[in-house]
Amino acid sequence: MFTTTDHRALCVMRATVEAVPLLRRFVRETAGPWELGDEVDEALGVIVTELVANVVRHSGSPDVAVLLTTTGRTATLQVQDTGRWRARRPRLAGDDDAACCGRGLQLVRAYAEDCAIVRTARGTRVAVTLAADVMIGRRPAGPDRP
Questions:
Q1: Phi and psi at residue 123, in whole multiples of 5°?
Q2: How far does Cα 123 stand from its chain's mean position?
Q3: Residues 85/58, Cβ–Cβ less than 8 Å
Q4: What is the pTM of this model?
Q5: How do residues 87-99 score in pLDDT, each as one tens digit?
Q6: Taking a C-beta distance cutoff of 8 angstroms, is the pair 124, 117 a contact?
Q7: Which is the most buried residue in 4, 21, 99, 142, by most CB within 10 A?
Q8: What is the percent of the chain with per-residue pLDDT over 70, rounded to a whole number?
Q9: Which carries the bigger pLDDT value, residue 141 or residue 31?
């Protein structure tokens, strides 16, 4: 359950494959003492993994920044890079249609109350907002949600 205390934590790392598990650990270990709840902790782990992996795979950015904040009953995770989006290579004959890639933002949006992606000449920032009822399937359906 969320506490009413506001928190803020920032970590900046080189945008390498090794940054993915390190930033996941940073977010989970930082959020743990904030008592956000098991569902929020799990969602934050999935979200930061997907977003940082996107930076590593697609941005060409030398660095990635992760900012985690809480305000009241809301947690916000921001991932920012200074690169330019690079599309994935097109699928080739023989590629596995059930490959584990290409679903990251769908997973992020499944957990999020809100997901904003801002691309500028200076990079990309993704801000994801979570509320206490973050568990998949437990949020009420709305016009933008199945």
A1: 130, -165
A2: 16
A3: yes
A4: 0.79
A5: 655 555 554 554 5
A6: yes
A7: 21
A8: 75
A9: 31
